[in-house]
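Table S2 (continued). Query chain:
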Amino acid sequence: MMTPMRYILLVLGLIISIHYILSFTHEEYGKATSISNIAEQWTGPKSNPPYKTPVPDGYYKPDSPLDLQDRKANASFVMLVRNSDLSGIMSSMKQIEDRFNRKFQYPYVFLNDEPFTQSFKDHIQALTNTTVEFGVIPSDHWHQPSWVDEDRATKSRDEMVRNNVIYGGTYRNMCRFNSGFFYRHELLQQYRYYWRVEPDIKLFCDVDYDPFLVMQDQNKVYGFTISLYEYQATIPTLWNTVKSFINANPDFVAPGNAMEFLSDDGGESYNLCHFWSNFEIGDLDFWRGEAYSKFFEYLDEQGGFYYERWGDAPVHSIGAALFAKKEQIHFFNDIGYRHEPFQHCPQGDVHAKGKCWCDPGQNFDYEWYSCLNRYDKIFS
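Corresponding output:
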């Protein structure tokens, strides 16, 4: 004779059996009764970083040419190089053309602090059928300002060299130019978006869609492929300077910004994370806007580009993270890229779709020195 408890256990067993049968035979029932779905009713749905959503098919261009009116963004590649960089920039440009621009035909702007030679121009123009322009940087946009205390700047450089700080004695003019002047160049005034390219990079994957249109249509202002920590010794006073600017100009800080990417304590200190700016796809109007313009002017007045070694990577990253919404900063997960010594190599289906030739096992994304985890977390 069965006790009441046995009846209860029998009924429960039947219910559980029916539940599992329905879960396997009726997909919608399985989804509706899954533990994750039930949990979401209490905690709300989890959000993913925007790059987890695939680029819509409408942005892709097939290999075979079509007699269609192409939609293009107002955009250009930007390359800051010297005449001596010819071999390295030709290698980069050839990959850009083969992997992307042979289809999309965006123009190029080359910038230098001295005139390009005719030989340089001839070699570059032979690589593409699209427009190429060559510009010289105005002297006051490139050279150290006269008001900088050269004795103090020299002592700072010498001390960094003695302490083996990477690039401790170089790159000041370039960092300042890229931070606050490249987007002011006359050749770029006609453009809204840019893709920064440097010598000797590797572009591992076919880019069969238009990232400029993604930026435009989705209201993005900054795109990156690699993020990492800055060297503290090169920017000892940068964050205190940033905080002083924010305190004086709180209205410039965007709601829903990416401060959590930069700081683990609400902005009291800087965790040194930044987007590696040797690859950038960005909105020139964002840099030209009031918030970033005044931010750069304030930084420049402090002299940190010369008294320390403030790089354009942390300056751009801090500006984008504070003055834009976090959704406006985009990780181009499907663009495989290497700039020595780091590389981003797409994984899984993304690697296959892009016909990537990098080794998926050599991927910086979640190494200990990468900040991509912090970028992911700002969306969780």
